[in-house]
Design goal:
328 residues; mainly beta; single chain; globular; 2 helices
Length: 328
Amino acid sequence: MHGWLGPGFDSNVTRDIITPGIGTISPDGFLYGLVEAEGRLVLLERLRLRGAYDAGGRIFLLNPSENTVVQSAQLEATLAILPWLDFSLLGRARDRRGADRDYTDLSGGAEVALFPADPVEVRVSVAAHRFIYWPRFDYSWFGPDGLVSAKYRIDRHHSLSVFGLYNPRTYSGKAKGPPPPPPDKGTQPEPSFGRADSVLGAGAAWAYRGGFQLSAGYSYFDTTSNSWGETIRRHRLTATGAVRLPWELTAFASGTLQLASYPQGFSTSEFVVMNDEDFASSVSAKLARPVGAHVDLDIRYAFYFSTMPTANFVYQRHVVTIGVSVNF
């Protein structure tokens, strides 16, 4: 079990997007807490059970309406059918409450893992996925998830991995039509059919594990929608690293460069159901030091940034935290 507690500062509590020179953002301080628990059990040497649960929350000083509680849970049962074949049943749930962004994210399915040779690992999973966005139910959706991933360990330090995913989504609301034509061109009726999106993704990554840790990757996501303004295409470059420093310090850093295009223009309504990592470029860093057998001190910083040229919007957010973590 792991727990973390500490104060922090958020430069854009409400996660507003603004037009340059117009509008303001709301900075605030907060108190943050997180608890993580995980358990494993092996039965009959072939059946492995794993469960994990975590809960975290933020309490803001000046904006109590932005207080947030997030919970998530995972259950996994894996049967080793053959030395080179595993079959798993997976269940995941995540629930967020607060700041007018309440949602529940549920998925459950099965996974087959193949180990055809010692350095090769291939996984294929299929799941049913249900996302409920409580403030606007028409942004809720359901659909199947399909994911294929492969990992190749080049040697004891280097590895390569690739993935591909497909997620068709059927929404609870209707599709939006294109902007109305000029008055002298008549009117255009709103679509009467439901919204449906098709999400495709693929990517590759390299990782090094040795005296330090370093990884880099590229991924592409294409969300094609029959609802006007909801089609998004994203390129994402990521890099992460960790290294031990003198005085028992450990430094972590990560960066994400995300280039997104909106063929029909940027939809501000879609923004509210996105997380920072879904649409924004970011830089983050963490410095940690143990102060006891089970206690660490750390300081963290993250910067999120995104522009939407079509709508002339800018999104920026700085988050700083100082915390104490305890391993039970």
